[in-house]
Each structure stands twice: as C-alpha cells, then as structure tokens.
Amino acid sequence: MSILVNKDSNIIVQGITGSNGSFHAKQCLDYGSKIIAGVTPGKGGQEVHGIPVYNTVHQACAKHRVDATMIYVPAAFAADAIFEAIDAKVPLIITITEGIPVLDMAKVKSALDRSDSRMIGPNCPGIITPDEAKLGIMPGYIHKKGNIGVVSRSGTLTYEGVYQLTTRGLGQSTCVGIGGDPVPGSNFIDIIELFHQDENTQAILMMGEIGGSAEEDAAEFIKREVKKPVIGFIAGATAPPGRTMGHAGAIISGGKGTAQAKKEVMRACGITVVDSPADMGETIAQVLG
Amino acid sequence: MNIHEYQAKILFRNFDIPTLKGTIVHDPKEAAKAAQDLGTSAPWVVKAQIHAGGRGKGGGVKLAKSLDEVSEYAKQIMSKPLVTHQTGPQGKVVHKLLIEEGCKIDREFYLACVLDRATSSVVVMASTEGGVDIEQVAEETPDKIFKVYIDPAIGFMPYHGRSLAFALGLSKPLQKQFGSLVKQLVQLFLAKDCSIAEINPLVITSDEQIIALDGKINFDGNALYRHPDIKEFHDPSEEDKRDLEAAKWGLNYVGLEGNIGCMVNGAGLAMATMDIIKGHGGDPANFLDVGGGASQEMVCQAFQLILSDPNVKSVLVNIFGGIVKCDVLAQGILDALKQVDLSVPLVVRLEGTNVEKGRAILESSDVDVISAIGMKEAAEKAVHAANQGV
After folding, report:
1. Which end is more exposed in chain A, N or C (fewer Cβ atoms within 10 Å of the end residue's Cβ)?
2. CB A141, CB B353: distance < 8 Å
3. Could you tell me which of A97, A14, A98, A9 has the C-alpha nearest to residue A48?
4. Hey, are the CB atoms on B117 and A212 less than 8 Å from each other?
5. What is the mean pLDDT of residues B277-283?
6. Is-contact B78 B94, C-beta < 8 A?
C-alpha cells in the first residue's frame, strides 16, 4: 500500500520532448514507472523513448486511461499546461517546474479547488512510491520500500531525510515533495491526511521550512486526527527575516513564519521535533523502537 | 524586486491613483528649482529615495517651509547614509530625492494589497491607523485592520471597496472615491504581478481628496519576464554587490554576519546546513544554493562569491548528489579550486549517487580538503576549522 501512486498508475509527461522532460521521463521509465504517453504541442505523432507523443492532454486521455501527469513545461507556460491537465480531468498532476509566477499559481489553485484533480508542486522533486513508481526528479535508488510516509517542502533535504531512513533499514511507503512555493497545489495537511488513512504507513516524517503557516495548520490537524507518530524538522532557524531563502515561499515576513514559532506549535501538538537535520533518521528509529 | 517610492507613484498615476505633484532630483543644487517648477506654494516635502521603510523617523523626510529650506534639507540628506530600522546600522546612501508639494492632511489611513498564502487569494487590508508601522498595529490592535479577500481568477468587485469604506467609517462622498481607488490598486497588483502594493499613509486632505502620500511596491521576481517596463525600474545601487554578482550567475545567495561560508545544493538543505552549523556553536557567513544541477562553472562562481567575504574563516560544502553524481561534483570542486585562491580550510561533505568515487577523487587530489561523512561531522569540522583561525 502507498498513497497517490503505485505500480499500476498510468502516467503521461507534459513537456516530454524538452531536455528536462525527456531526461527525467527516461529515468522514471528505468525505475519502473508506467509512462504511457507524452504531450508536447506540435510534436504529436512523434515518439520519445518509444512512448507516443500527443499534441494535447485531451488527445492523450482519449487514447489512454491516464491516472497522473508529470509537468516539465517551462515556467512561463506551466500554468497553461496545468489548466489543460485540469480541463482533461487528470486526477493527479505533478508539477516539477520551478519559478511559476505566484499569481498564476493562485489562479491554478482556484481552478484546482473547483475540480476533482489533485496537484503536487510546483517547484518540487515529485513523488515516489519505492519499487513501484517514481514521478519526479529524485534519485530512485536511495529509497526503500517500507512504512514511513515522507512529506517535505524541499528537494535535496528530502533526499537527506530519506537517505537517513534507508541507511537505518527504515523503508518508505510514499515520499511526497510538496514544493517550496508560497502557493502549492497540495499542502502538508492534504498529504498527511492521506498517510493517516493509509494502512501501510506507520509513521510520518515531515520536513518543513520557514514561511507561511502550512506546518502549523498540519500540526493542528495531527493533534485532532492522527494517532501515528509524526517526526518533524523545520529548516531555516538561522534565516534572517525578510529575505527569500532560495525557495520563493521560504521567507519570514512581518515576523511571521519563523522556524521557532513552527516548532513550538508542532511540539504543542504532539509532534516529535528534531532541531538537527542530522537526527531525523535516528529519531524515527527511536520512536518506532 | 523592490522599487523606489517615486517609481511606485509613477505606477499609481498610470493606474489613476491620486498622488501629489513631485519631481526627482539627483543633485541637491537642483532641489529648490525643482520645487519652484512644481508651481505650488509652500510647503514642500523633501524625501530620501532608498529601498527601506522608516525613512521619516530616520530623518530622511523633511517638511520645508521655503525654497531655501528645500535646498538646505536636500544638502543635508543627499549622498549620506540614511539609517532606519530596516537598513541595518550602516544605513543606505541616498542618491535620489523626491521633491513633492505639500498638502493639508485631515486623516491618515493604511491600504495595501498582498497575496494571502493561506487562502491563495489577494487580500486588501485597510486600517484607520495610517502612517505608522502596520506590523505593530497587527500585533497590538488587530481589530483595527480590515480585510477583504479577492479571488484572483475573478478579480475586484465593487462590494470589496464598499466593505472597506464602511469599515473605515468614510462619509458618503468619500466612499465612492475610496472604492475606485481600491479597484485601481487591485488592478495594478494583478496587472503588474506585485507581491505587495502598499499605500501608507493614504491621506484624506482637508478638502476631502484621497491621496496616496507614500507608496511601496514589490514585484514577484518570477513574473518579471512579462513586465519589461517594471524591470527598467531596477536600481542596482540599492543592492548588495554580492547579491548582484550571485544573481548574475543564477545563484541563490544571502549574505549573513558569520564566518563559515556555505555552499549547498538545494534551498532546504542549504538552510538546514546553516542551522546545523549554528547548532554546533558556529555562525554561517551566508546562505548559498547552487541548485540541483550545480555545474562546474556555478561551483567556481560560488567559491569566488563566498571567498569575497573577508569574514569567512572556513568553508563548508554540503552536496547531496541526486541526478548529478558525486564524482562529477567532486571533479567540479577540484577544477573550480584551480581557478580560485582558497586561503581558508575547506570541509566537503558528499552524499548520494557515486559517493565513494567522489570521495576518492577528493582524497587522491593534492588540494587540502577536509572530508566529512554526515552533516553532523561536517558542521563540527567546519566550526572547528573556523575557530582555529587558520
């Protein structure tokens, strides 16, 4: 069991003929992901890695059952690609693209809320269910099949956390990178709710960072609903206020969204918070005994 | 991206938001003439143009009762550092002055548009507590801030303006003026991809006119590609030299006060690396994300940037190789070091794809690299090296 994706998920890739899209489509195929089609406007009829390319998402959906799409379209055109996927009723949209204007994302979020589609990202590494399906840019081999659900706003920090788990023999049910933007398609609360319902997930590792209030919102939800152990880390305790720390969403503004405030709320809600990023794996091992 | 007050007011005028008459001057000698040319009678206001709030309290905004006073204040302020609560103790040097006509203020309000992350909508905030630090108002008397939420897919509706006008207790003739001003501000915010568009204070004059007395606008850097007109407003003299250099190379860099330089791939891991340095008693000199790709050229530029900071006493490189393999990165670090003069200890922590090969490359080289396994060991070694003061 896992959340969102498994070995039977039929996946399409929007932007498959671009260098990023093509490279990562191959990496995902090699991992075992069921990529069945690609979409690039004007490149319909071609093939990439033996996968048929269509001009529109609707055309791909007419020929195949599509469970998920992975979007590698450049930032200036990404919102358009997401709207197209929503319009074609693709249930799961994984947007890897970084640098989408935030007002574009606010409009996307408004459309998502009125649809049955769920989006992960943008500005994220994607999602992986170890040994079943990889939809993203993460290195597949560091993951191991198991029972820890991982959710994070970061890319390489997620790999760090996963690596700490895997080297201690702790596998993952699914790892979800929700991305570092101020307006993400899905937030901690959405993913943690899925882990909460997933029988195979025994514990949850959440890696947050400064900015916004997604961690606090999730903490309140965890306190109310989640009985599984949750271990958390917040990056950016040393970040200066008012500066964007790489991720568009990682900014302390008006004294709000500090690591310290997030950790306090999380601890008060029963989450085991680690102060050192080196202690994530070890702490989960201890909590699980 | 930030812009100056006078630039914000250019945009306000383009969007029919009322402002006072004003001229920008680059030389204090031009100030009196500029004031005279406005064609208004005394007083005038001399306003320092820097990218920071709190200019009034810092002495950067002066009311001049005569043309002589305009000259005098202009001389006082121009070309000198202005210190406010947002500039840091060294202040920011004033290169431009806005000379504006005066007006008779009856009441001061606060009005701003920002994106609300929690609801992913545009929130318009208004308050009767204008002209003061709004963060303080939010902290102490949050009930004095009124908000309306606007779906960016739908945009402004007249009731948004009405709701705020009633909340502020505006008289009937002012309600209409105010409503259309809110509409224009929201349109400006949406049309130009602002991240904040703030009027503080928004004043009501003694003859019942609503005027944007001050303006602050920031823009979403990710949307600048579709606003060449806004890009033109960019003032490099307002930015830290290292920040400009970093931006040129596509590096995410934030200079800090500490002495341990950091180079990390990925923003989250970069913040976590700073945190663990602090956790081991050290102090990071910077945040630097070389990106998931981290090409050799970027690594080289990153080293140069870190080492241009004279405070740096050791450097910690923390790379988690994913798609980019550790052996390629190790070679990139060595090649970069051939081009930069490394005068402080270098601690490198590699993990991920082909890590054994990567570590072997570093160990077999003649460059003095302190290798570390795991973030904890890396932080300990970097802090130790910095404290040795080598």
Report:
1. C
2. yes
3. A14
4. yes
5. 96
6. yes
| Structure ipTM | 0.94
Contact (CB<8Å) B276/A277: yes
Spans in chain A with pLDDT lower than 50: none
- Reported as a single tens digit per residue, the pLDDT across B215-245 is 999 999 999 999 999 999 999 988 888 888 8
Cβ-Cβ contacts under 8 Å, A159 against chain B? 320, 322, 352
Pick from B225, B266, B353: which is nearest to A155 by CB? B266
- Among A177, A154, A172, A153, which Cα is nearest to A162's? A172
Tell me the pLDDT tens digit for each residue of B79-90.
Answer: 999 999 888 888
Contact status, residue A277 vs residue A237, Cβ threshold 8 Å: no
Active-site residues of B: which are they? 110, 198
A4 SS3 class: coil
Q: What is the pLDDT of residue B292?
A: 65
Contact (CB, 8 A) for B101 and B22: yes
Distances (CA, A) of A203 to A190, A287, B72: 16, 9, 68
- The predicted model scores a pTM of 0.93
- Report whether B181 contacts B17 (CB < 8 A): yes
CB contact under 8 A, A100 and B153: no
Tell me what pLDDT residue B85 has.
87
Q: Does pLDDT of B390 surpass 60?
A: no
The nearest alpha carbon in chain B to A138 belongs to: B322
Mean pLDDT rounded to a whole number for chain A: 96
CA distances from A3 to A60, A136, A172, A280, B372 (A): 24, 15, 11, 22, 36
pLDDT tens by residue, A28-58: 999 999 999 999 999 999 999 999 999 999 9
HEC string of B232-257?
Answer: CCCCHHHCCHHHHHHHHCCCEEEECC
Q: Choose among A158, A211, A276: nearest Cβ to B376.
A: A276
Contact check, Cβ <8 Å, B278/A103:
no
* Count of CB atoms situated within 10 Å of the CB of B311: 15
CA-to-CA separations, A187 to A154, A220, A245, B200, in angstroms, rounded: 12, 13, 19, 33
Q: Which of B113, B271, B349 to mutate to test the interface with A (most CBs of A within 10 A)?
A: B271
B268 contacts in chain A (CB < 8 Å)? 152-158, 180, 207, 209, 235, 246-247, 250
**Which stretches of chain B are assigned E, i.e. beta strand?**
22-25, 44-48, 61-64, 81-82, 92-93, 97-101, 105-116, 121-127, 145-150, 194-205, 210-212, 216-219, 252-255, 260-264, 286-289, 314-321, 346-352, 369-372
pLDDT in tens, A213-261: 999 999 999 999 999 999 999 999 999 988 899 898 999 887 889 999 9
